[in-house]
Each structure stands twice: as structure tokens, then as C-alpha cells.
Automatic annotation (TrEMBL):
Membrane-spanning segments: 30-47, 54-70, 76-95, 146-165, 186-204, 224-243, 273-296, 308-330, 342-363
One Pfam short name: DUF4153
Descriptive protein name: DUF4173 domain-containing protein
Domain of life: Bacteria
Keyword annotations of the record: Membrane, Transmembrane, Transmembrane helix
InterPro entries in the record: DUF4153
Length: 472
């Protein structure tokens, strides 16, 4: 990095800090955060243009737009997490390798590199990269004389300010108001500005400067025999086999068997355990990835044994995911759909796709294709999820249940975001009286409260809010 580029990053980061201090000052700064991210990505793009880096920044900008194209909190969190991962890819690119060479372990290496850049990038810019010692004597002298002049001018400025306040009560009132504002918020303004500037400077530097990290050195240090992983792989195989055997017994035994053995109804049985099964599938995938990464490279017999065990585990996890899907189906029959359950189903689909891709690549000896394939799967999955609009799906599914005479929770549906408002309006037309009036009243009351805060602060706006929320 040249000193000129380092000196350009520093004021850019400070400007981003000042902008953040304004844009983030809202209860939920949806539009404000999106605008700041786009400005920051634009600054990163202007500092240095390189084809792959430009593509990653473009992907990040598309994810920023998703933050305001949808409003559902869980979907917003997923889009934000995807943006975070994409920004980590920018930091990972600073290792000097292409995304085509991405490996599973780079998730950890990229995360460490990003944290190191954010924490130590600014001091490095100031003390080394900017090369302050190379500044001319005239520039150094100007800084020195400016500091001396500021010290000398301060008492004069204070005296003139006091005299102006004495001469004009209006000016004195203005100073009182400004003083009260500074007393209560100046430290907060400075803190937000400097913290964001620090992070921005570190992130901008980290995305440009390759880090001296050799991933192959770590692998050689931690290559382990298959016997190290047999307890985990074998134990998981036995546990999942036993669990699936019980599920088969429950399937044939029916509700009476479930009630007699577990003491709960089928409805409670369906509601409990769905999320846990998704987590278990993710944990098995993590164990398989770590095993593949750390297993000694030269032992082909160990590799074949691992592929056999991995294939068995993938099949068992597939059965676990099918069981989770059946539980969701039972849950829908008893309780209807919620946003949490939609997202859990979406995560189940993602885990199933990643497990299938793992079997197709890693277990066939093509591990280098796995990581970039997961990125592609995740991008398609997230795009389809935003396109599907989970809250609309929730409302329409539960309305169909209500049309069959089942319960429709008006209080819950009124709490949904602006993403659900068109579906809720259609739902009111289909529910019939008196539930239609109850739903419209509950939605109007909820959005009257929300609009009292959001209507006059553009930093909280999203596209669904502009199209539907403001009119409630």
C-alpha cells in the first residue's frame, strides 16, 4: 500500500464515521444503514478496482438493497448475515487468492483476518502505511504552527463568545441550548463517529492488503489419523441409528404409543424437537467438514473408510431431516404456520442442499468444489427466500386453515411487518365477519402506533413500508 493511498483511507474513514453518526440515529435505521453501506462499498470500490473484488462488492451492494426491499425481522437478519459473510469474503480476498480456491477452513481464516484488520488496521495506517516521516518539513511545520495558533486563539474566542452572549439575550439563549445539547450528546456523537471511523479504516485497509497467512502450514501441523475421528463419527452413527429406530416405532405405534412412552400428545411431540433436529444436522455436517480437513492426506485407506462412514452419516441425517419435515407437517395441522417455522423450514432446505453437495463433492474427493458451491447454493436460496416473502406465506397458509374452520390468531398476524400487509388485506376479505373487522382493527391500531415514530424519519423506511405501511 502506498503512503498516498493510506492517507486517502484515513479521511475517507472519518467521513464514513460522521455519516454513520447521522444515519444510525434512528430506532431501526433500515434505510439509514443501507445508505451508509452503499457509500462505504462505493468508497472501497473507488480506492482500488480489481475484477473479482469488484464482483464481491457488487454482490454486497445487492444484499444491501435486500435490507430495504423486505421488512420481516428474521429475513432482515438473514440478509444482514449474508452481507456480513460477503464482506468477510472481501477480507479473505486480501489473502491474495481467488474465490475459486476457497476452502471450508477459510471461513475461520477469513474471520480471523477480518477481526485482525478491524482491530489493528487503523493504528497500522497511522503509524506505518501513511509514512508520516516522509512528509516535507513545510507540512510538518504547518501542523505545528496550526496547533500553536489554536491554543493561542482559544481564550480569545471564549472571551468574544462571552461578550456576544452578554450583548444579546437571543444569542445567550442559543448558547444555552447548544450547551445542553453538547452536554448530553457530544460524547455519544464522538464515540459513534470515532468507532465507525476506526472500523471503516481497518476494513478498507484489510480489503486491500494481502495478509501473510499460509493455510497449508496449518494443515500440515494438524494432519491426524482416522482413529482420532472414529469416536465422533462412530458415536454419531450409533446415536442417529438408535433415534431413527425409535421414530419408526413411533410411526407405526401412532398417538397411543407416543403418549404412553413420552407422556405428551402428538401435537406437543410435533412442536418440540424440530429446531433441535436442524441443529443436529448442522453439527454432523461440521464434524464431517473438520474430519475431511484434518484427516491425513497420504493414507488412501483412511480416506476410503471416511467416505464410507460419511456416506452412512449423510443417509442418517437425511432421515433426520425427513423426520423434521414430518414434524412440521403435524405442527401445521395442529397450530398453523408462524414466521419462525417458515424460516426453520427454509434452513432445513438449505442444510439438505449443502449435505447433498457435500456428498457429491467432498465424499468423491473433490473438496475444492465444495466451498464455492455452498456460496452459489446460499445465494440462490436467499434470493428465492426473499422472492417468496415468508410473511405472505404465513398469512395465506393460516387463512386456508381458517377457511376450513380452524383458528386464526388475529393478535399474532397484526404484529407482522409491512411485508404481510397486502396478504392481510386479502385475508380480511376471505375471513368473513366478524373476524375481518377484528383483523382490520388490530392491524390499523398496530400501524398507527408504528407510524407515529417512523413516518417522519426516512432512516427507518423500507420499500414495503412506503408502499403499504404508511397508508395504514
Amino acid at each position: 500500500m502506498t503512503p498516498a493511498l493510506a492517507r486517502l483511507i484515513l479521511p475517507t474513514a472519518l467521513a464514513l464515521g460522521l455519516l454513520a453518526d447521522y444515519l444510525f440515529r434512528a430506532h431501526q435505521p433500515r434505510a439509514g444503514f443501507a445508505v451508509w453501506c452503499l457509500v462505504a462499498l462505493g468508497a472501497a470500490l473507488l480506492l482500488q478496482r480489481e475484477r473479482e473484488r469488484t464482483l464481491i462488492i457488487g454482490a454486497a451492494a445487492a444484499l444491501v438493497l435486500l435490507l430495504v426491499l423486505r421488512e420481516a425481522p428474521i429475513l432482515y437478519a438473514l440478509n444482514g448475515f449474508a452481507l456480513f459473510i460477503t464482506l468477510l469474503l472481501v477480507a479473505w480476498r486480501a489473502l491474495g487468492r481467488s474465490v475459486a480456491q476457497l476452502e471450508p477452513r477459510d471461513a475461520l481464516i477469513g474471520g480471523v483476518a477480518a477481526v485482525a484488520s478491524l482491530a489493528g488496521g487503523t493504528p497500522t495506517l497511522l503509524m506505518r502505511d501513511a509514512n508520516a516521516s516522509a512528509l516535507g518539513e513545510q507540512v510538518k511545520g504547518n501542523y505545528k504552527t496550526f496547533g500553536i495558533g489554536a491554543i493561542v486563539a482559544l481564550p480569545v474566542l471564549l472571551m468574544v463568545t462571552g461578550l456576544l452572549a452578554s450583548a444579546d439575550p437571543l444569542f445567550a439563549g442559543f448558547l444555552d441550548e447548544a450547551g445542553a445539547l453538547l452536554d448530553t450528546t457530544l460524547a455519544e456523537h464522538i464515540g459513534v463517529t470515532l468507532a465507525t471511523a476506526w472500523i471503516s479504516a481497518g476494513a478498507l485497509r484489510g480489503s486491500l492488503v494481502p495478509l501473510a497467512i499460509d493455510g497449508t502450514r496449518f494443515r500440515k501441523t494438524w494432519e491426524l489419523p482416522l482413529s482420532t475421528f472414529l469416536p465422533a463419527l462412530g458415536g454419531l452413527t450409533l446415536l442417529l441409528s438408535a433415534w431413527i429406530g425409535l421414530q419408526v416405532r413411533a410411526m407405526f405405534g401412532g398417538a397411543a404409543y407416543v403418549a404412553a412412552t413420552s407422556g405428551v400428545t402428538v401435537a406437543e411431540y410435533a412442536r418440540n424437537g424440530f429446531f433441535e433436529l436442524i441443529v443436529i444436522a448442522g453439527m454432523v455436517l461440521a464434524v464431517l467438514l473438520v474430519t475431511d480437513d484434518l484427516l491425513v492426506r497420504g493414507a488412501e485407506s483412511a480416506r476410503r473408510s471416511f467416505r464410507t462412514l460419511g456416506g452412512i452419516l449423510i443417509a442418517l441425517v437425511a432421515a433426520v431431516l425427513v423426520s423434521a419435515l414430518m414434524r412440521l407437517s403435524l405442527y401445521l395441522g395442529f397450530y398453523g404456520l408462524t414466521e419462525d417455522r417458515v424460516m426453520a423450514l427454509a434452513v432445513l432446505v438449505w442444510v439438505a442442499a449443502v449435505l447433498g453437495w457435500f456428498a457429491f463433492t467432498v465424499l468423491r474427493g473433490e473438496r475444492l468444489r465444495f466451498a464455492r458451491g455452498v456460496l452459489a447454493i446460499s445465494a440462490v436460496w436467499l434470493g428465492l427466500l426473499n422472492l417468496a416473502n415468508p410473511e405472505r406465506w404465513v398469512v395465506e397458509t393460516n387463512v386456508r386453515r381458517a377457511e376450513r374452520g380452524l383458528d386464526f390468531d388475529i393478535a399474532y398476524h397484526a404484529t407482522l411487518s409491512a411485508d404481510a400487509l397486502p396478504a392481510l388485506e386479502r385475508a380480511a376479505e376471505r375471513l368473513g365477519e366478524p373476524r375481518a373487522t377484528e383483523l382490520r382493527t388490530a392491524v390499523a391500531a398496530r400501524w398507527t402506533e408504528r407510524n407515529a415514530r417512523r413516518a417522519n424519519d426516512w432512516r427507518e423506511w423500507t420499500l414495503p413500508y412506503l408502499l403499504h405501511g404508511r397508508t395504514q
